[in-house]
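## retry 2 of 3
previous attempt timed out at serialization; input unchanged, resubmitting
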Amino acid sequence: MKPSRRKFLAVTGSAAVTSVAGVGSASAAIPISNVPVPDNVSQMYPTMGTDAENPTATVFGNFKCPFTQDFVNNVLPDLAEKYVKPGKMNVRFRTISFDPYGRGTTHSTSEGFISSSDPTISSTALGIWEEDPEAYWKYFETMFADPLISGTVTPEKLESVMSKSGVDNVENIVAQVNNGKYDSLVKDSHEESVDLKIQHTPTFEIADSTFVGPKPDDLNDLLSFVQANLSGAETYLPKEDKKEDVKSGGGSSEGSASGETTITFDGSSAQGWANYEFTVSGEFKQTRTMKSSLEDGDSLDGSTASGGVGPWEDTYTYTGELTDLTLSQPIDVLRNDEPLDLEEFGANIESEKLDVKSASDTNETSKSNAKNALSGACAR
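## retry succeeded, writing output
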């Protein structure tokens, strides 16, 4: 049994469519199953590349989307040959599993992008990446072979694909998926796609610029697009490598009698998007766990932290005392895993109204940095 080179989650504490001609045919470039995988550090999402510190692009796709299949089979191999194999760029794969209008609406992430099985398929892929990253891209390649998987999909239904791809620890992967271990990472990808105003798969993103629906005929345009944006691409190191304690502006490091206290903002009962802000007398840091989905919009500023939650949790660890708490609407707040009585604490709850981002807001797609080839993309 091959040992896993990385445990990327071991840290403190993500529409009906029609097919197109050419789907499923293989490229003459490097097979996706043979792409290099960074082995010096772990990655939160499946990544092909020679080193984790390379500039990184992201493909947002869907395992049931025939246009993503066309891209994977007929565009991605050439891109990998020209940029990934020589070490010029890494490419991550993140799935869009929910309705792109889910964020900030009352149904939130309850509606699948193509089918209700999308989150399960995405979680299973993340489980494979964690347990056996060497086999991931073979599994990925197999999943996008003809025919695409269809119907209601469970982790158990994917066991045969995993076995065919040489994946180890299949039973453990299935158990972890069924236990919801990867749910927050699947939701993270959904939120990231909304922030980037992505509504179609596949969409290729680099340096916050997007190329929608790249087809084989668009390869030269895509390569030019990559070259034009490569210098601004980010490096996505593991969150545990990037995590740092943030010192506050007031209070001592001794904090409470127990040394550290955790506070969790649970948005599972939120109606729409719930914002929070709190202040402590000591020091604090963000804590990233499987159930604690912190994003770029969550911030630490001196002794105050702020952010927002949908159907997930944000967790922080701090010393000292909690001195002030403001919420945009009533949500569950846990202190050391015990419910905090908001009224007794004196929390400021700004409004009972929903903080809802409308579909029209999400529809304001930035066309200045996106090439739209919507005839070659899946959408709801």
